[in-house]
Specification:
Its cofactor is Zn(2+). With 136 residues, this protein is α/β, with parallel strands linked by helices. The chain has one domain (2-134): 3-Layer(aba) Sandwich (Collagenase (Catalytic Domain)). Helix content is 51%, strand content 21%. Strand 1 (2-6), helix 1 and strand 2 (32-41) form a beta-alpha-beta unit. Helix 3 crosses helix 4 (95-110) and helix 4 crosses helix 5 (118-134). The chain is globular.
């Protein structure tokens, strides 16, 4: 089950469509959908989590806590709507496009994709682009 929780004024208007898209990606990656919670917040909220749990004093667009059990994807994905909006401007893409990229990015981490090295980041981007192309 995929749920959307809002700690900010953001409200996605296509939750059902996004959930179906995410579920399809999970299945295609060879996993099963468990409980996935998206929590949308602002920079301050996410920075507090970043410092408290990851010992990083930097702004980020996403933090994901992975509770995957075997092949069942479970986790909490915190997304800063502020950071996504800024990144969309920086990358000259729509807010919706950048938000979709971040939504699938968290899931791809749960499926085992990394983004610490250049090669891993290139593979992650390729997978993100693949799934973005499937979203109308």
């Amino acid at each position: 089950m995929i749920s959307y929780n809002y700690e900010t004024e953001l409200q996605l208007d296509n939750e059902q469509k996004l959930s179906e898209w995410i579920a399809k990606a999970i299945t295609e990656e060879g996993f099963n959908e468990g409980e996935i919670n998206y929590i949308f917040c602002d920079d301050a909220y996410l920075l507090k989590l970043n410092v408290q749990y990851l010992d990083h004093d930097t702004l980020t667009d996403i933090i994901s806590f992975d509770y995957t059990l075997g092949k069942q994807i479970n986790g909490d994905v915190y997304i800063s709507a502020e950071r996504v909006r800024e990144n969309a401007k920086d990358y000259a893409v729509s807010f919706e496009n950048e938000m979709s990229r971040v939504l699938i990015h968290g899931i791809l981490h749960y499926c085992g994709y990394k983004d610490k090295s250049e090669a891993d980041e290139a593979e992650m981007r390729s997978k993100e682009n693949y799934y973005l192309a499937q979203l109308d």
